[in-house]
Amino acid sequence: xxxxxxxxxxxxxxxxxxxxxxxxxxxxxxxxxxxxxxxxxxxxxxxxxxxxxxxxxxxxxxxxxxx
Length: 67
Known about the structure:
The relative contact order is 0.15. This protein has one domain. It has three helices and no strands. It is mostly helical. The chain has helices at residues 3-19, 24-40, 47-60.
């Protein structure tokens, strides 16, 4: 997936999550997919998104995924 496309998907995800929060499990899964895309490309993952992923995992009572 091209980097620009991935960036656009992350921005859209964050906009949607801010404007109309969905089920926490759905948000967590969608965020995890976006971060996996960055990691698959060998790109750095923004710390604020890593923190959000950890907060969602903690709030939902799930173990935090590995890098």
